[in-house]
Amino acid sequence: MRTWWLTSITLTIVVMAGSIAGTASAVTVWRWVDQNGVTHYSDRPVEGAEPIELAGAQTFPGTPSPSTAPSVSPQPGMQSGPTRQETQAQAYRRFEIVSPAQQETLWNIGGTLNVSVSLDPPLQAGHRIDVYLDGERRNLGATSTQFSIPEVFRGVHTLQGVIVDESGAEVLRSLAITFMVQQTSILNPNNPTPPARRN
Fold first, then answer.
1. Cα 131-134-136 angle, rounded to 5 deg
2. Fewer beta carbons under 10 A from the terminal one: N or C of the chain?
3. Judgement on whether residues 89 and 178 belong to the same structural domain of the protein
């Protein structure tokens, strides 16, 4: 048992020595069998030992660096980089509602709200502008920065613009604004245009 253990240690040392050398050339070790039938190995010549050529340490190619790694083209159906909507949204540097202004009070609009938006750059081909009025989508399909929204009556409202592409998918939304619509009445003592008196 002891002899086998010593033999294993000797073999391990020899193999490690060959690995540490790390050269491509072969390493020579000597092997012999003693009178008890136990095989021994040594890195030095021993009387009656036979030389054995061990191959040099095995090496493996390293992982290529990102700069040298070959580029892989995306396969059909795989997305690479930003999506189309993200690219379209990035194309607009500014999209905001100019009129009505935030917290503005509008008088006597007759149920029709005139809206003006600011866009930079201008609206892209195939894009149009819709709005959310009080959280409800109004599909206006406007292609100009000035348009009208019908059926906007007295009260407090919220308004948000949205740019959509040719498929109807949203590209970009503006910030929402809040405005108020008021209607003068002959019963209102602050009526700026009271009716004419009869004689």
1. 60
2. C
3. yes
